[in-house]
Amino acid sequence: MVGLDPNDCFALATYKISNALQRQQQDRFPYVFLILSIPGLSAAAVAPSVPDDFVWVMSVVKGRRVVEEAIAKELGRPEHADVFQGILNRMTEGEFRLISARRAFALLRDLLFERVFAVRVPRFNQNYRNAEIDMHFSISQELTPVATFLEILDRDSLQVLAVRLDRGEI
Hints:
The protein starts with 8 loop residues before the first strand and ends with a helix. The longest helix has 14 residues, at 14-27. It is globular, with a radius of gyration of 18 Å. Helix content is 54%, strand content 14%. It is built from eleven helices and five strands, in the order βαβααααβαααβαβαα. α1 (14-27) crosses α6 (101-110). It has a three-stranded antiparallel β-sheet with strand order 2-3-5. The chain is an alpha+beta fold. It folds into two domains: 1-39 and 94-170, no CATH class; 40-92, no CATH class.
């Protein structure tokens, strides 16, 4: 729907990008989003492991973030460990990548109509209740591997890295 291979696509809520930039201005240090991408692991693959009662609560209760955090905390308890062990084991297959808030915003601004599906759909909020308005990024092309980030930090100074993050180069 946004011109990216689904296996190379990461969706990030636009309000999170905006909030990160506001915090960056306020706190005076660059914000980054850290993403762990695991090939073939999607919400659809994890969904069967989540008890139906939790799914029902998510569908009817307002204040989703608080509910999501409570459910995540509950599912992290030892009695649920066996259900999610396979998913946890798959984390070693993944790669951590990051994108600075500034770069995320620049791409959002430049690719708004290509990568934010919601702005192309009439009555998006009516048709997709409670859906977030997401910006979609190419994992391989627009997110920086953490190893590369650490190489830059090792090669250059912390100040150079901070400037590059603030300029949206990383």
